[in-house]
UniProtKB/TrEMBL annotation, chain A:
Keywords carried by this UniProt record: Nucleus, Transcription, Transcription regulation
Coiled coil: none
Predominant subcellular localization, coarse grouping: nucleus
Name of the featured protein: Mediator of RNA polymerase II transcription subunit 18
Keyword Lipoprotein: no
Gene behind the chain: MED18_2
InterPro entries registered for this protein in UniProt: Mediator_Med18
Tagged with keyword Transcription: yes
Sequence similarity: Belongs to the Mediator complex subunit 18 family.
Gene3D superfamilies, per the entry: Hypothetical Protein Pfu-838710-001 (2.40.320.10)
From TrEMBL, chain B:
Family: Belongs to the Mediator complex subunit 20 family.
Subunit and interaction comment: Component of the Mediator complex.
Matching InterPro entries: Mediator_Med20
Lineage top rank: taxon: Eukaryota
Gene: MED20A_1
Localisation: Nucleus
Main localization (coarse): nucleus
Function: Component of the Mediator complex, a coactivator involved in the regulated transcription of nearly all RNA polymerase II-dependent genes. Mediator functions as a bridge to convey information from gene-specific regulatory proteins to the basal RNA polymerase II transcription machinery. Mediator is recruited to promoters by direct interactions with regulatory proteins and serves as a scaffold for the assembly of a functional preinitiation complex with RNA polymerase II and the general transcription factors.
Keywords: Activator, Nucleus, Transcription, Transcription regulation
Organism whose genome encodes this protein: Datura stramonium (Jimsonweed)
Protein name per Swiss-Prot or TrEMBL: Mediator of RNA polymerase II transcription subunit 20
Transmembrane spans: none
Amino acid sequence: MECVVQGIIETQHVEALEILLQGICGVHKQSLRIHELCLKSVSNLGLVASEIRLLCDLEQPEPTWTVRHVGGPMRGAGAEQISVLVKPMLESKVSKNALRLFYALGYKLDHEQLRVGFAFHFQRGAQITVTVSSINKMLKLHATDEAVPVTPGIQLVEVTAPASSENYTEVVASVSSFCEYLAPLLHLSKPGVSTGVVPTAAAAAASLMSDGGGTKL
Amino acid sequence: MPIKWVLHWQPNAGTTVNTQILAEVSQCVESINGVKGGRWKNTLSFYKPMLREQANALEFPRDFLGISLQEQPNKHYMVIRGQRLIVEAESSIQTIMEKLQSYKTRGALNFEGFQYQLGDFQLRVGKVISIHSENLRGIVMEMEYLPISSWETSHQIMGEFFDIWQEALGKRSLPGHFAHIEPNFSEYGLSDQYTSQHTAVQYASIVAQMIATAQSSQPVRN
């Protein structure tokens, strides 16, 4: 399982966010460059339609591939009340020819994108990952070198943490409380529940940039 | 990693494999001073597409295999032999395949037995059984040579050892022999340096051969 919240930030404030994250987490950022391919089963295959994601990490000297399967999010009154999305998620690292395998099995490319940005990985009540990235689309098939931003001037911020059915309430609490630190710069919510940019972002960013993140907001 | 050949028992025409042959093969390894060691086990599953309509079933591979090897307990190998395709994945891929509900495993074979040390060679003799019934489907033997990891370089010594082994076993006049299939690894994109992917490809090849043999020896039904 995985806990997720998302938000957006204007590219001009990303540097301030980076300073803030660096201050909170105490670890260095890692560059992020991921080619993401979303595949869907052809109509006759499977009792239900299925979807699988192939992620190619282009930051590594030799690109590495991961297969990711995301299940339907948790439902019910309990899930409604929490501000974090909890969904089943499984990953498996695979050899580089996995795309050929899924094509052979009857999966077709639905869409692909390139995420470029950075990530922070740290322990704070849970193993939290914050990624700040711009989503790019490819004008030609797999042409990651010629990708263009889908939303110029806006970047996606995603906070994720692995969880299990036993501990997800604690993980949700850790993610929620972490999100509060970022509140002056951006608002984080369940994916699909867009809340836009926050009005205090410019002022908060200016304050962070002037003192290098040394002061608590 | 060390090179290995995966051999399978090829029964003579009109005969089938039985536990007596397996016992004789094991005794033969011990008679040439093989020192019995621990147990080993590999598993091979047959994945079949789950289709809403059977009409265009031919669009999907019928020879999609999943292989788990004891030598790589955290990995799972997926092979489509007809397309000369092998993919190495972490074991969690098996759960992902279940969640997708597009392919499901219909039947699986276990390869299991004992391993023997013989100088620089490691031999693993095993029975091939269906996981749903204990019926013996075949006999398999892994012949591993520890000092060499290049397929080409090892070819001569492996060939010589194979001949010695065949000669030793020949004295027992068993109704069949061990056969060695040499897949064209480069067609699978595999290099000369031996890896577990080579092992998985060999298992896929011997299973295809065992199925072909079993089908051709079945009595013709009216």
